[in-house]
Amino acid sequence: MNKKLIIIGASGHGKVCADIALEMNQWEEICFLDDNENIKESLGLSVIGKSSGFEQFVDEYDFFVGIGSNNTRKRIIEKLKRINASITTLVHPNAIIGRDVEIQNGTVIMAGVVINCSTSIGEGCIINTGATVDHDCDINEYVHISPGVNVAGTVNIGNNCWIGIGASIINNICICNDVIIGSGGVVVSNIVERGTYIGVPVKVVKNEGYTYCSSF
Ligand SMILES: CC(C)(COP(=O)(O)OP(=O)(O)OC[C@H]1O[C@@H](n2cnc3c(N)ncnc32)[C@H](O)[C@@H]1OP(=O)(O)O)[C@@H](O)C(=O)NCCC(=O)NCCS
C-alpha cells in the first residue's frame, strides 16, 4: 500500500469514491486524474492530469477507478493491472460487512451497504449506497449494484451486470453476464440471456443489452 491515492474519474461517482477514501483516512494525499480539462478540483482535491497519463504515477500511488460505466471501468482496471499498479478497494466505514466475505480489488462498497456472511464480490464492482447483498451470494466482476438494491441469499450475478436503483432479487437466483435490471425491477426467476429487463416481475425489453451501461 502506498501513502498516496489517485482516483481516475473526478465527476459524480469518482467524487463519492474520493469521499469514501477520505473517510477511510489511510492516505496522506488523494487526487484525481480526469480527461475533462474543465474539472480542476473536486471536494478540494486536485486533478493532477489526464487518465491516460496514469503510468508516470505507478511507483508512488495506489489507484482506484471511479467511473460508473462497467465497460470503461473494466478497460482502465485491465490497463492498470498490465503495469502492476496497486489497485485498492474502498469500503465506507459505515458499511456492514459480515464474516467470511471476500471483496476483490477495484471494488467500492458505499455508505449504508450491508453485505452478509459468506458472500464474495469480484473485481471492479460498485456496491452503491444503501444496497444489501445477503448471505452466500456470488457477485462476479464489474457488476454495478445501484443504490437501494436488495439481493437475497444465494444469488449469483454474472460479469458486467447493472442492477438498477431500488431493484430486488429473490433468493437462489442466477443472472447471466451482461444483464441490465431496470430501476425498481423484481427478479423472481433465473435470467439466462443477456439483455435489459424491467418490471415486476422483470421481463426482457432489449436483447442487445449491455451497451446501455455506458450511458451514465
Ligand atoms: C432500464 C433502463 C436501463 C432503460 O433505459 P433506456 O433504454 O434508455 O429506456 P427509456 O428511458 O428510453 O425507456 C423506454 C421505455 O421503458 C420504460 N422504462 C424505462 N425504465 C423502466 C423501468 N425501470 N421500469 C419500468 N419501465 C421502464 C420507459 O417508461 C419507456 O416506456 P415507453 O416506451 O412506454 O415510453 C433505465 O430506464 C433504468 O432503469 N436505468 C437504471 C438507472 C439507475 O439505476 N441509475 C442509478 C445509477 S447510480
Q: Can you characterise this structure?
A:
This protein has 216 residues and is of the alpha/beta class. The protein folds into two domains: 4-88, Rossmann fold; 91-201, Hexapeptide repeat proteins (UDP N-Acetylglucosamine Acyltransferase, domain 1, 3 Solenoid), CATH 2.160.10.10. It contains two helices and 25 strands. The strands form five sheets. It has an eight-stranded mixed beta sheet with strand order 7-10-13-16-19-22-24-25, with helices on one face. Strand 5, helix 2 and strand 6 (86-87) form a beta-alpha-beta unit. It is globular. Bound molecules: coenzyme A. Coenzyme A (COA) binds next to strand 24.
For this structure, the CATH topology of the largest domain is UDP N-Acetylglucosamine Acyltransferase, domain 1
User: Which compounds are bound in this model?
Assistant: coenzyme A
- CATH class type of the largest domain: Mainly Beta
Rg, alpha carbons = 17 Å
End-to-end separation: 31 Å
The low-confidence runs, each spanning 5 or more residues with pLDDT under 50, are 211-216
Question: Main sheet, how many strands, which sense, barrel?
Answer: 8 strands, mixed
Could you spell the SSE succession in H and E letters?
EHEEEEHEEEEEEEEEEEEEEEEEEEE
Shape: globular
